[in-house]
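Worked problem 6 (solution included).
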Amino acid sequence: MAYTTFADLAHAAASAGSLGAAALALEILESGAAEADVIARMDAELAVMEASIAAGLANPERSRSGFTGGDAAQVLSGPGLIGDSFRDTLAHALAVGETNSRMGRIVAAPTAGASGVVPAVLLAVARARSAPRDAVTSALFAAGAVGAVIAARATLSGAAGGCQAEVGAAAAMAAAAGAELAGADPDTCGHAAALALQGLLGLVCDPVGGLVELPCVVRNASGSAVALAAIEMALAGVRFPIPFDEVVVAMGQVGRSLPPSLRETALGGLAATPTGRALGERACAPSSVSETPADHED
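Solution. The predicted structure is:
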């Protein structure tokens, strides 16, 4: 059973050495698998994340709905107004979302709709700190443990809690794990997670046409920016007065208070704007899906 509070996770990390080490130790204990095998499986997840970024950047084609595609590569070649690293992080988050929209292989972290935040942020921190691969893999264990806390105390479902439960959770996971990858102690990682999640409280889930594309893909980039801001503040010594566990509970309460129209039903928010409705109707119309010879193969 995963840690159900960040307080328990941080307590275990104090003796294990890090959040990632505590999460790894618990996985070994509960699964009965060898440490090398557990680490290898997580390293394989990292490889999928890297491949989903590469695929998104290499393929400029639009998704079948026409909503997404090509933006990641466009951002990567952009001006880098406040630095190449920040620009590249946004591009990588978009790339994973675009890969998902084209039915490519991604790692749900914690969901498919929010899959770009964790890899984009962790790989950005790894580049900035010249972190070895095994440190990035350990950070993924930390991210997973934080995600498990959110699942236990609130939700990771957009249908239950809005996009704050998906992109918001991903930002918190990325912030805690990214801070650890940068050398922070568990307490600082908890503040990074709290700073990230509090900044996305109330974010609604309003997918145009009910598809996990618009605005979902670009929200991965926005969530990555929030996570980086949280890491920067936490590493500088900023402390959020409300503990992460309480921020998570608040997120769950906010999610339950959202009307159904703002929880993945495509009945409110951007999906309900005149343009959003028109785009959704066009994307979901039978004639909008082009047929190929492969569609008729037995």
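Discussion: The two ends are 44 Å apart (CA to CA).
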